[in-house]
Amino acid sequence: MKSVVLKHGCPSQLITDNASYYVHGNFPKLCNVLGIKLSPVTAYHPQANGIAESKVKALKSLVRSLVKQNYSDWDEFLQYTIFSFNTSFNNTIGCSPFFVNHGYEANMPGKIPMALTNQQLNTNIVTDTNQYCQDLFKKISESHILVQNNLKAIANSRTNILDIPQYFNRNDEVFLFSPVPSSNIPKSFQEFWKGPYKITQVISPVCYRIQNLADPENTEVVYASRLKRKF
Q: What structural domains and CATH numbers belong to the chain?
């Protein structure tokens, strides 16, 4: 709330993993109150949030290069790392994340960048406040369209959903693969296929919402690779 909503405004949609603190408890209730659509990715399928996972990996690499041997103070470098990451050109979106969020590039620390910025401001003086706001809105809108088009193009290049066959249909009964072992059952007797479940919604050819037949209140969204038909 303090770090995101009060600084940047309320997001319309939030994509998270399936950690318990995201999908249960007070967090989903807060999102509901704020009007945020909570969209957890399918469990045991990190590829569903691959772009975010790759950026986290890049941030970890930057932090690792800064802390060197003293790993206890890594959190002191985190904000500097995020700023460096946000002000760098991103091939995926076609500009820097800072520009997408603000409509202009960051004024970087240092005498030369600040001098260049001051010179640019002196030669491009905007006297009309409304004109400045309109220009800023236009730049932000254009950057958002650019980002959306680039993300869509990259997604289409990686996976064309039209080429994926539909594995299951609505109302099909299936079993769900759950790789979490039970501590009360010996490993040799573990049963990793749970169910049966019923498919209640075909979200996409590879993503389904299923309902536990033994507990109809228990529903979840899963990837097709974790399902098999009930024979």
A: 92-158 (no CATH), 173-229 (2.30.30.140)
